[in-house]
Amino acid sequence: MNYSIQLSMVVVFFLSALNLVIIGSLLYGRLHNSIAEGISLEQQRRLLKLLSGKIVDLKQKGLIINYLNLRETIELNEQTIGNVNKAVDIFKSNRNYLQKLKSRSRIKRIEAAVFLGFMGNDAARIAMEKAILREKDYPVKLYIANALTEIADPESLPVLVSSLKNSHRWYRERVNMLISDFGDAFNAYLTQISGSELIEIKELIVDFASVNFSETVKDYLLELIDCKEEAIKKLQTLYGASTEKACRNCIFYAGSEDQDKGVCKFQGAVSSSYVCQRHQVLPVSVNYKENYTKLVYKAADILARYYPKVLDHPKYLSSEDIELRNLAIQSLANIKTLGNLTKVLSLLNNEGNARSVVNSVTKIIERNPSYIHVVVKQFEKEKDSAVRLRLSEILANKIAYFIMKLGKQDGKAVGDIIKQVILLGHTSEVIDFLNKNKDLDLENELLAIIKDVIRQSDKHKNEFKRYLNERLVHKCGLIKTEEIPAKKEEQKDWKLIRSLYLILFSILVFFPTLYCLRHQDILFTAPLAEQVKLFVIDFNYYLAYYSITINLIYLTLLALSYVNVKKQLKLWRIKSLSLLFKPKMLPTISIIAPAYNEEKTIIESANSLLNLKYPDYELVIVNDGSKDNTLEVLINYFDLMRVDYVFDNKLNTKPIRGVYQNRSIPKLIVVDKDNGGKADSLNAGINISNKEYFCGIDADSLLEDDALLKLASLTLDKGVETPALGGNIFPINGCTIERGQIKDVRIPENPLARFQTIEYIRAFMAGRLGWALTNSLLIISGAFGLFRKERVISVGGYLTSSGKYAKDTVGEDMELVVRISRLMRELGQNYRICYAFNANCWTEVPEDLESLKKQRYRWHKGLIDILTFHKTMLFNPRYGRIGIVAMPYFLFFEMIGPLLEALGYLMVIAAFILGLLNAQIALLLFISTILMGVLVSVSSLLIAEKDKTYFKLRDIMLLIIYAIIENFGPRQLFSLWRVGGYLNMLKKPGGWDKPVRRGFTAKV
Questions:
Q1: CB 810 within 8 A of CB 858
Q2: Which residues contact 409 (CB under 8 A, 6 or more apart)?
Q3: By CB distance 3.0 to 4.6 Å, which of 389, 548, 674, 724 could disulfide with 654?
């Protein structure tokens, strides 16, 4: 036995033993129920000891965090809390955590802040007051600020306020709201800081006023508004009249004692948004005048809500500043008197005030429905057509009221109002009413008005023809025609096809060329049959080396994933619900769920998404021209009505047919649109959405109730912009679902779905977590991803033929992440794209070969399309690790790799037939394809259960078995399908090719 075979045997033994150790850890952990269930058995014993009043050292791992989490979920009685206070070794624990506050580890500093906040003694408070001023890491600084506000000693106020100076906006926005929790104590402290010219102080007081109003802050806000021009002139004096942009953080140091630090003027930048290297965070407009003016408008808006009478003054109602004037008008809506309504209506003839007057009168009527007769009388006597139109817009909100008054004493006036409202474009409620109405006389009265309208407007004629039921359309003298969707002409991308042929040709000639170079000495002398055998042997070695290389990459990513999971787990356990649910701590989120032929799963999914644990979110379901009853199922189940919904078309999409809502379920919005694909549906949802971030999720998926909370909480860990975040995906096949909740987790019964379970766990745990740690993550699953809305709009939204780039893609999830990363790198902007290993989304996976094959074809086509569309990033140092490492990896190992594997399999078969599979080749192939593959899979499974046990012992054993047998056929088949996707790109453009869903059942 030669040396290479002996070495291979050693490697086989080592990897086999390592696999057995990991498998043993999995099984042992399941048997003893201690793999990472939030609190292990030992931790439970320590916690019970603490609660019973026995002396403990809080230095013991995880004890303080477990105790704080327990206090959040269970209300402890005073005796138990007293026992804990007696049991804690105050001196020893305090000293330990005071030392940790100076640790080099940011996680230890955060842990120290949480503990010291829990202790709440003077020593802890003083130590944290010193620490917050020297701390440079903003997430750590935020935890210290939160701990000080939990202690709630007014002595900390000057330090907290001081920590805002020269700090990131990311930090200021959150800490301003924490300081607001001091309430009366901060209100008393205001006199000491109200004279400051620092913008940070002005922002703080305005934010405080938004939640804690008093006479003191009222006077401050009024002064801020009245001195607006004077303050801006002061800034102009300091910086000159130049409109040149500057760092949006540094610009506001003007007039402060830190003025000598100056302004970070940018040189040679072409972007209209700029921050200096010291303040890299969330770029927005940086013109000092604009920013100061926005602060003034925010102050006016607060006054309009709390002290509306102070804005009821000619200097505000007649201000040359249109926005300020509109805010003053809107404040009048909060003064509930009939005379005030008359005053607001008198302002309708000014076009600049129109929108504010309409909104104000609408609010007044909503609060005092009896006042509607005043607006009706004004409408009847008004001669100015423009004013009459504005009055009809106000009355449009009460269209149902006027419909019910048709045919009565004042029927003619009511008919005029309804006609004006319809001509204004408010048709949704009229159509919805008619389709449900049973009163024939009322129907005839209303149809008479509609007939008059459709004689004047083809646009309205088409809308009524489209949405009224067939009987009503016939009564209007129209013919209801079936809509035939326009056929999409898909053009071949010949440039792409030529590139793919070139790659294919290069691969086919590369290995023969390599053979010729290696064996040129026998090239023209040895018999052809011998040379063929030698070529086959060489190729088998190449396949083994390729497999070893890619598995070594997986193992490296796996090691990085393990490090990432440990960090995430520690940070998640530190975060308290009270912190996460504080105002402005986490971003507001719109969940956008595209739905195409999802009638079987849509209600379960919607119920799940409407019951998430998150402070502020909405759900936007986008029906993408489904051919089944998806829309009807939603309308009937949630009792939805078609409404006139106003939104901005910031992204071009296929036409919106209608928007549906139920006022008793305000966070649910259903959008019906023409079919345009998933990416187009997501763009439509972005246009409709109202929150800071949006979460793209498949409509056939279910989120765990805390998944969104875990994912969004990563924004607190970085202190820089997080434009995109991804969550974990598990197959839902086999699970028991009740009312949109997973009641019992089981692996699928279907063997094909079981193979996909292992594949998903490996891809997410061994891949994406590792890439995320190096800030090189390029894929966030379309089934569950979180994106900053403003950033996505700035890059043109998802790639569609209707959009900015006039191009479709079937890999919209990865493409958007790549485009965001590309933009951030080109702007030189500091950012992180994150991945949460414990934020779980459960989705249905295909259970038949044909559906799975279509899915894999689609995935590979998407990858090819993205790599060719963003080819300038490949090997480009400008894009950092993404250009040098991540993109080349996807090119060589994900796009081209399957072609090499397919050729390798052919050569293995040829070697077997020719009897050329010697012991060394067999051992190398066994090591590279079987042992290393199993190692990656079972290690990924171990990482997946780091935080929580998902699968029962039987399921774990089955997954281990499938992790082994998948290497003997299934993985090779999946790889060949990717080759099929590559070859398919040479024939025709790719489509979405949505697979048929079975739906959620008691056991899928």
A1: yes
A2: none
A3: 674
Q: What is the mean pLDDT of the chain?
A: 82
Residues 6+ apart with CB under 8 A from 844: 601, 700, 701, 731, 732, 733, 997, 998, 999, 1000, 1004
DSSP assignment, residue 699? T
Q: Can you say how many angstroms the Cα of residue 142 is from the centroid of all Cα atoms in its chain? A: 22
Q: Are 640 and 670 in contact (CB under 8 A)?
A: yes
Angle between the N-to-C axes of helices 138-151 and 122-134, in degrees from 0 to 180, rounded to the nearest 10: 150
Contact 801, 491 (CB under 8 A): no
What tokens does 598 get? 């999802």
Q: Look at residues 68, 61, 29, 28 and name the one whose alpha carbon lies nearest to residue 43.
A: 61
What residues have CB less than 8 Å from 1003, skipping those under 6 apart?
Answer: 734, 736, 746, 749
Contacts of 298 (CB under 8 A, 6+ apart): 206, 210
**Digit-coded pLDDT (tens) for 51-83:** 565 555 555 555 666 666 666 555 655 666 555
Residue range 795-832, pLDDT digits in tens: 999 988 777 776 777 778 889 999 999 999 888 888 99
The DSSP-derived string for 158-226 is HHHHHHHTT--HHHHHHHHHHHHTTTHHHHHHHHHHTT---HHHHHHHHHHHTTS--HHHHHHHHHHHH
Per residue in 269-323, pLDDT (tens digit) is 333 344 454 444 333 334 567 778 888 999 999 999 888 889 988 888 888 888 8
DSSP H/E element including 916: none
Torsion on CA atoms 4, 9, 12, 17, rounded to nearest 10: -140
Q: Provide the CB-side half-sphere exposure for 190 (13 A, CA).
A: 26
User: pTM of the predicted model, to two decimals?
Assistant: 0.84
Q: Which pLDDT band holds residue 686 (cuts at 50, 70, 90)?
A: very high
The residue behind tokens 């070529």 is 535
Measured from the Cβ of residue 264, the count of other Cβ atoms closer than 10 Å reads 20
Sequence-distant (≥ 6) Cβ neighbours of residue 617 within 8 angstroms: 588, 589, 590, 591, 667, 691, 695, 708
Alpha helices in 3-61 (DSSP H): 3-31, 41-51
Report which of 285, 173, 291 is spatially closest to residue 228, judged by C-alpha positions. 291
Please give the torsion angle defined by the CA atoms of residues 737, 740, 743 and 748, in that order, rounded to the nearest 10 degrees: 40
Main-chain dihedrals φ then ψ at residue 831, nearest 5 degrees: -160, 165
User: Distance (Å, rounded) from C-alpha 696 to C-alpha 525?
Assistant: 63
Q: How far apart are CA 631 and CA 602, in angstroms?
A: 9
Q: Please count the residues of the chain.
A: 1004
Q: Output the CA–CA distances (angstroms, integers) from residue 459 to 45, 418, 447, in the order listed.
A: 72, 17, 17
Nearest to 740 by CA among 948, 998, 949, 999: 999
Q: Name every residue whose Cβ is closer than 8 Å to that of residue 428 and which is 6 or more positions away in sequence.
A: 641, 642, 643, 644, 658, 659
Amino acid at site 177: M
Q: Distance between CA 333 and CA 749 in Å, rounded?
A: 61
pLDDT tens string 146-201: 999 989 999 999 999 999 988 888 899 999 999 999 999 999 999 899 888 888 89
Q: Which contiguous run of DSSP H or E holds residue 733?
A: none
d(CA 776, CA 771): 5
Residue type, 640: L
Cα-based angle 138, 139, 145 (whole degrees, multiple of 5): 85
